Amino acid sequence: MNVRRDFYLKQLVDSMWDGQVKVITGLRRCGKSYLLKNLFGGYLRENGVAEGQIILLELDLLSYAVYRNPIKLVEFVREKVPDDGVRRYLFIDEIQLCEEVENPALPDGKKLTFYDALNEFRSLPNLDVYVTGSNSKMLSSDILTEFRGRGNEIRVHPFSFGEYLSAHGGDRREALNDYLLFGGMPYSVGIESEEKRMQYLKGLFTELYLKDIVERKQIQRLDVLDATLDLMASSIGSLTNPNNVANVLTTKLGLATNVNTVRMYMDHLMDAFLFSEAKRYDVRGKAYFDYPNKYYCEDLGLRNARTGFREQDMTHLMENAIYLELVRRGFSVDVGVVFSWETNKLGKRERIAREIDFVVNKGGEKVYVQSAYRMDDEEKRKAELKPFALSGDSFRKIVVRDDIGHRFFDDSGVLNISLVDFLQDSTGAI
Predict the structure, then answer these.
(1) DSSP helix, strand, coil percent of the chain (3-state; round to 5)
(2) Largest Cα–Cα distance of the chain, in whole Å?
(3) 262 near 231, Cβ under 8 Å?
(4) Which candidate, 157, 133, 155, 320, places its Cα nearest to that of 232?
């Protein structure tokens, strides 16, 4: 299976020799290493870069374990990069495995980390540095602090539907159904047996992701972590927060825990790129709510594996798929909230909160996106479109649907587009 991930490859090519450390982040096994070593490495070789100009360190392999010490890492790289004017490229896979060590010059001072090593590499004028990693706080927020604009993050996701289709081939509708069930983890796409694909995805959770979190974060309450993960997987696209999760764990599952523990475990799951949080935004008030928010899984196959491939709610799977595609395209994505005064069944006026599934921002552009599985009657159509009207502005508005074949604009100027077209079309709708 050969899937060209041109969307990410272009970002790497465009950032060559920009003076920054290129930090390729994302979920483990989502294709970061393949992108760096095979696709980008192949690009360099095709453009005249000799094999000896590419320095590769795979820190997850035992043979490279000594270089998890940042001092040893610097010593090795400096030996490989003489000041001879020859341009070289440094690839470090799974940089977060680098350990903290004492500073020999200041034993009682701040410990040395891989940030110190990366800063050292930046001082070498004939070295361009690329690293991969699988921890969001360590590699995203901390990079911004430690490097202060000297690091460039390239976030990689599992296969988009467009990438999946290029590997899967065949009928688009069948491919979409398959994608919503099994997701886009690269290795799983090449497995023909559905049973083996299910086993592989289930194994990733238990043998890789959970094991990694438990060991790295020294988890004491595995039962609480498991239950928190189950609830998050079951409630994708639903409003929740650590308080709600903690209440369910204590009152319904009988687990003695507290909101601080649950919040910490939810943060761990997001740090590992398994889930993302979408905050709620008051569209007219132009302010964020503190809680509750929505959580989406990074890959639908992993989500479905966690639920035992039992909970196939098309409405929420579709919403999750749209969210992932918007994030992959580089947009900032919030959940929009608009309010209206309406008369209830008792004849009383009450303030009702209505939701715009996604408020999408990139640069100065804003777009509203609604996920609607079906709008096959007038009542459903009015319910889905009402939040658009309540926004009180003229930003572009899109409804992604699974019950139409071709895109069209309605009388209000709202673009109606099919799910399969939206997920495959990286340039048209947004």
Answers:
(1) 45, 20, 35
(2) 83
(3) no
(4) 320
- Give the DSSP letter string of 9-26: HHHHHHTTTSSSEEEEE-
| Unique residue bearing structure tokens 């980390």 | 113
Q: Which two tokens stand for residue 314?
A: 């098309």
User: pLDDT tens, 145-165?
Assistant: 665 566 788 999 999 999 999
pLDDT band at 427 (very low <50, low <70, confident <90, very high): low
pLDDT for res 345: 84
State the pTM of this model: 0.93
Candidates 427, 412, 237, 191; CA nearest to 333 is 237
CA distances from 296 to 202, 237, 279, 308 (A): 18, 6, 11, 17
Between strands 349-362 and 332-343, the pairing is antiparallel
What does the block give as tokens for 413?
């100027």
Q: Under CATH, which number does the domain 6-155 receive?
A: 3.40.50.300
Side-chain-side CA neighbours of 328 within 13 Å: the count stands at 29
Output the CA angle 320-378-180, nearest 5 degrees: 20
Residue 188: CA atoms inside 13 Å, Cβ hemisphere, count?
A: 28
Question: How far is residue 252 from each of residues 245, 249, 257, 259, measured CA to CA in Å?
Answer: 10, 6, 12, 15
Alpha helices by DSSP H, listed for 39-189, are: 41-46, 70-80, 114-122, 136, 142-147, 161-168, 172-182, 186-189
Per-residue pLDDT, averaged over 88-111, amounts to 94
Cβ atoms of 168 and 266 closer than 8 Å:
no
Identify each DSSP E strand in 214-348 by its residue range.
Answer: 239-240, 275-278, 280-282, 287-288, 293-297, 332-343
CB 55 within 8 A of CB 89: yes
Classify 422 in phi/psi space as left (phi over 0), alpha (psi -120 to 50) or beta. alpha
Size (the chain), residues:
430
Q: With beta carbons less than 8 A apart as the criterion, state whether 1 and 166 touch.
A: no
For residues 12-46, one letter each, b for 16 or more C-beta atoms within 10 angstroms of the residue's C-beta and e for the rest, the string is beebeeeebbbbbbbbbbbbbbbbbbebbbeebee
How is residue 308 written in tokens? Answer: 């035992």
Count of CA atoms in the C-beta half-sphere (13 A) of 265? 28
φ/ψ region of 251 (left if φ > 0, alpha if ψ in -120 to 50, else beta) reads: alpha
Positions of E strands within 261-331: 275-278, 280-282, 287-288, 293-297
In the structure, what pLDDT confidence band is assigned to residue 354 with cuts at 50, 70 and 90? very high
